Amino acid sequence: MTNAITRRLNAIGGSLMVRSGRVGILGTTGAKTGLARRAPIGFVTRPDGSILIGSGSRVNRGWTVNLKANPRATFAIKGIERGYRARLVGDGERTAALAELKASMGSVAERADWGDLFVLEPADPAAEPGVPAEPAA
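Above: the chain's sequence. Below: its structure in token form.
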């Protein structure tokens, strides 16, 4: 992880996530500008290949607005970037998703219940032109 990203995370209180290694880089398209945007985000990987992320803020962060406007996204973990389609976690699954975040990330995830939660589901490259496919194994 670059020093600039680490400094940014430390400045916003993410130093515990950085040290835990549970930070990925979310790529979105700006809702207003249409420009590519990137943000460091704590995450939980799920057995089905999806990724659970949360904003931890009562106010909408830029990346949450971007995902609501355009759910196509990328997420990089340890330098490997893949394409995803974001889905806002609904009321019916929110309690379970929060418990999953807190069980995996501990006290780092305590603020997750303040903001939006998203599931990043692996994109089907055939159905999503322009979304990077998962690298061949």
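Residues 3-122 form a domain with the Pnp Oxidase; Chain A fold (CATH 2.30.110.10).
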